[in-house]
Amino acid sequence: MVQCLCDAFQIVFRKRISKIGSDHVRAISEPLLQVVALIYHFMIATECVLPETAFSANPRRIAPKCIGQVLLLEIWNMKKVLLALAALGALTTAASAADLAAHPYVKAPPPPPAYNWTGFYVFGGAGGGLWSADEHIVDTVTGVPLSVSQRQGGSGWFGTVGAGYDWQFSQTWVAGVFADGQFGSIKGTLQDPFNFISANQKLEDSWAVGVRVGWLVAPNVLSYVNGGYSGSHWGQSEFFGTDTGLAVGVHTASYNRNGWFIGGGVENSLNIFGFSAPGWFMKTEYRAAFYNAKTQDELFDVDNTPVGNSIRSNNWNQTISTSLVYRFNWGTPVVANY
After folding, report:
1. Is 123 helix (H, G, I), strand (E, B) or coil?
2. pLDDT(165) > 90
3. Fewer CB in a 10 Å sphere around the end CB: N or C, the chain?
4. In terms of Cα–Cα distance, which of 188, 186, 187, 196 is closest to 137?
5. Looking at residue 275, what is its pLDDT?
6. Sign of torsion, CA 115 120 126 132?
7. Residues sharing a CB contact under 8 Å with residue 318, sequence separation 6 or more, in sequence order
């Protein structure tokens, strides 16, 4: 019976070990099976007769020699179980650690670039504009109004160039100064209803010096407002008959007007859609300029003497432009203390 139990134990034990699937566990489990075999041979050599239970048909008394052997066997079995459990726990841990593959070291990705808006920039672009004027005819000598006020206006296209300097003084705020010029042809109408004559008036160029303050919608997208001082130059106008369209030999001289402006826009990096353009930006801006009132004398073409009537008007311009911007120090670290 003991032989059968021993063989059964070895078969079951080997099956359990084979399921673990580790060479380390199978190699170390063989000594445990040898220990079981030694215990069996010890019991046979001493001819120990195991006791029958109280329910056996032929209960026998156990000899003192066998009692000692039985006690020794029980003690040995307890130690064997404890040792086997400890060994299996250690072997399972070692096998699991041995079977796990080493994880390769992966370097953390670099942080995103710290954009810095501080520095100089230049830009150039183009756009379209409108001008409007409320004008009326006055007597050249007395200044007495000779007609009611009329709304006149014009439209056209222009080019623009400029430069500036920005300072990023916080993580989300940028301030700067700039200057630009606009060159083109925004034409409109000039009328003298008292003498039934009209002329074409053209805004030839303008300039502006101002400041801007912007808020960073994203690290590379700036929304801003601006304002400052502006000047404009208007070309000479040649009058023609309102009913005939023929020249009448009268003109107004070219002149300058000064005023102020306010506007705003958005400027964003061109590093978009997979393209890399370090330092290159695009901005779109709206601007409204208001100029002081001006009185223009009507003059004869022959000797520039006054006709006797003058045109008094105030002008304001509205423009929208898109420009390509290049920033000289884009991408350098931000050094401002926030």
Report:
1. strand
2. yes
3. N
4. 196
5. 74
6. positive
7. 129, 130, 131, 286, 287, 288, 289
Q: Residue 334 CB: number of other CB atoms within 10 A?
A: 15
| pLDDT on residue 71 | 43
Q: What is the DSSP letter of 243?
A: T
Q: Which residues have a Cβ under 8 Å from the Cβ of 195 and sit 6 or more positions away?
A: 298, 307, 309
Residue 308: name the closest of 137, 133, 135 by CA. 137
119-327, what's its fold? Porin (2.40.160)
> What does the domain layout of the chain look like in residue ranges?
2-98, 119-327
Q: How far apart are CA 95 and CA 119, in angstroms?
A: 62
Helix or strand (DSSP H, E) at 29: helix 23-45
Inter-axis angle of helices 64-99 and 23-45, to 10 degrees? 170
Handedness of CA 182, 291, 156, 263 (dihedral sign): positive
Range name among 180-184, 259-263, 275-279, 321-325 with the lowest pLDDT average? 275-279
d(CA 321, CA 182): 10
- Nearest 5°: phi and psi at 41? -60, -35
Give the Å distances, CA to CA, from 99 to 18, 19, 96, 178: 15, 14, 5, 67
Tokens of 258: 């000064």
